[in-house]
Amino acid sequence: MNNIDRLRHGLAPAIVGVIALLAALVAIVGLTRLDGGWLLALAAVAVAGGAGAMALADRIGPATRIVTSAALAVEVAMLVYATSGHAFQIDMHMMFFAALALTAGWVDERAMIANATVVALHHVILNFALPWAAFPETGSDLPRVLIHAVILVAQTVALCWLAGRLRAAFADADALRTRAEDEGRSAEDRAAAEGRRAEGESRRRGELQRSVAAFQSEVGRLIEGLRAQSRQMTQTSQSLTSVAASASRDAEQAAESSSQSSGAVGAVAAASEQLSHSVAEIQSQIGGMKSIIDKVNGAAANAQGDVEKLTDQANRISEVVAIIQSIAGQTNLLALNATIEAARAGEMGKGFAVVANEVKVLADQTGKATEDIAQRIAAINASTRSTVGAMEDIARRIDEASQCAGGIVTSIEQQRVATNEIAANISHVASATRHVSDLSRRASEQTRSADHSTRSVVETAVQAEKATDGLARSVDSFLRQLAG
Q1: How far apart are CA 314 and CA 308, in angstroms?
Q2: 31 and 93 co-located in one domain
Q3: How far apart are CA 409 and CA 412, in angstroms?
Q4: Which helix (DSSP H) or strand (DSSP E) does residue 450 occupy?
Q5: Potential cystine with 313: which of 179, 183, 268, 331 (Cβ 3.0-4.6 Å)?
Q6: Are residues 34 and 143 in the same domain?
């Protein structure tokens, strides 16, 4: 319903009420002043009833507006008739203009024209047919009718123009109201949407805060785990460094011992060569019994001393071999421990595990080489014991040189063969000892390389721990910015 319809709904009862009031006034005046006034009263009531029925059927419809406007003019005309012959009759004409002004409330030019048409017909017809029913004078009064007509037309035109302007104003007001309502609904929709958006934003912020809290907890746990692993890696690397340093020292000692063993074996080889030359000298001078016996006696004494020295050197070599075997066992154990520590270190310890395995292999080779040396030394000891027996036999044979010269020759030949065998064995021992020395030096170099690698691992672990602390600070700063 627009503003004009609301105005008309409010005006309808007033117009119907005015019509009813005029009908009552006509009935009262007619019954009191006119003969047959009851007919006028019935007519007034009938007009009022018809207008009321129209209003009940269609309160503000076009027909209702036109009929009620015309009914107002009819009721005023009947009131003018009821006051005929009275001084107030001419004054009742003022009610025509008042009624016309009242019809302007319908904001309908047709209603106002209907009212004005009834008034015009009333004046024109009664002016000529029943002048006394319209004016106080008994005769017609055309100038007065014209004056009233001019005023009526002017008022009608003015009211119609006003109705048009009022209708346009109401239309603008309705448009503004509709737009305002639309904007109000849009504003409400926007407010509701903003509320929903704010609620969604609040919910998302809550979810984001919960996610940030969960993420912060998880990242904190991971960073703490990284710190613990970095510290553990640092400790393990330090332990590996200590083990590598110890292995390096042991390898250097093994190399030094191997060098000493090589020197001792060289001395034994020289002694063996000297013994061989002595036997050759004895054999070359066997032709002269006395001189040979004397020389053989001296050579035998020298040979016996050399054999004793050889025995001492062989015993020393056995001791050195035992030391090398002990060192090889310790190196093997250290390599095993290093392998275990490298396995604990995981990915960072793979390189060291390879080095430790190489050290273990070298230690095994050293053990095998020392076992071979021990076997060779045992053979040397056996040979020296045989030589000692031969020398004792030579001593006895010297006393019986004249009787058993041939036996001496045979014994000397046996001694030569044994001496050659000793020299060959000593040569093998020297070669094996040099190999052990080379292996020990290589083990020492590889152990130093492993020590350098473990120190690099320690530095990497420290840098990883620092990087973990920096990561923790960066993540904490990011989460504070995200939460803010």
Answers
A1: 10
A2: yes
A3: 5
A4: helix 405-483
A5: 268
A6: yes
Two structure tokens written together for 198: 């704010």
Neighbouring C-beta atoms of residue 47, cutoff 10 Å: 22
Say if residue 455 is exposed, middle or buried (CB neighbours under 10 Å; 0-12, 13-18, 19+).
middle
Cα 197 to Cα 201: distance, rounded to the nearest angstrom: 6
pLDDT at 239: 66
In this structure, the chain runs to a length of 484
Least confident of 300-314, 331-345, 375-389, 401-415: 401-415
Q: Which of 260-274, 378-392, 405-419 has the lowest mean pLDDT?
A: 260-274
In a domain, 464, yes or no: no
Tally the domains of the chain. 2
CATH number at residue 321: 1.10.287
Residues with Cβ within 8 Å of residue 176, at least 6 apart in sequence: none
Q: What is the pLDDT of residue 423?
A: 64
H or E stretch at 56: helix 37-57
Predicted pLDDT at 443: 58
What is the number of other CB atoms lying within 10 angstroms of the CB of residue 204? 12
Contact 352, 345 (CB under 8 A): yes
DSSP summary character for residue 484:
-
Distance, CA of 432 to CA of 430 (rounded, Å): 5
Query: Structure tokens of 218?
Result: 């998880």
182 burial level (CB within 10 Å; 0-12, 13-18, 19+): exposed
Q: Which domain holds residue 319?
A: 231-459
Kindly state the DSSP code that residue 225 receives in the 8-state scheme. H
> How does pLDDT run across 438-464, given as a tens digit for each residue?
766 775 677 677 567 667 656 766 776
By the 10 Å C-beta count (0-12 exposed, 13-18 middle, 19+ buried), 35 is classed as: exposed
Residue 38 phi/psi, 5° resolution?
Answer: -65, -30
Q: Which amino acid is at 386?
A: S
Tokens representing 190?
């926007």
Find the distance separating the first CA and the last CA of the chain, reported in whole Å.
Answer: 52
- CA dist 323 and 370 (Å) reads 9
Backbone φ and ψ for 372, nearest 5 degrees, come out as: -65, -40
Q: Distance between CA 377 and CA 26 in Å, rounded?
A: 165
Query: Contact at 8 Å (CB) between 426 and 272?
Result: yes
Torsion (CA) 135, 136, 139, 142 in degrees, nearest 10: -40
Measured CA to CA, the distance from residue 445 to residue 435 in angstroms comes to 15
Write the CB contacts of 75 (distance below 8 Å, at least 6 apart in sequence).
Answer: 19, 22, 23, 26, 44, 47, 48, 99
pLDDT of residue 53: 92
Please indicate, yes or no, whether residues 124 and 249 belong to a single structural domain of this protein: no
Selection from 48, 31, 53, 49 nearest residue 40 by Cα: 31
**pLDDT 10s digits, 56-97:** 988 888 899 999 999 999 999 999 988 887 878 888 888 888
Q: Look at the alpha carbons of 197, 198, 203, 204 in this order and tell me if their dihedral is positive or negative.
A: positive
Residues 239 and 174 in one domain: no
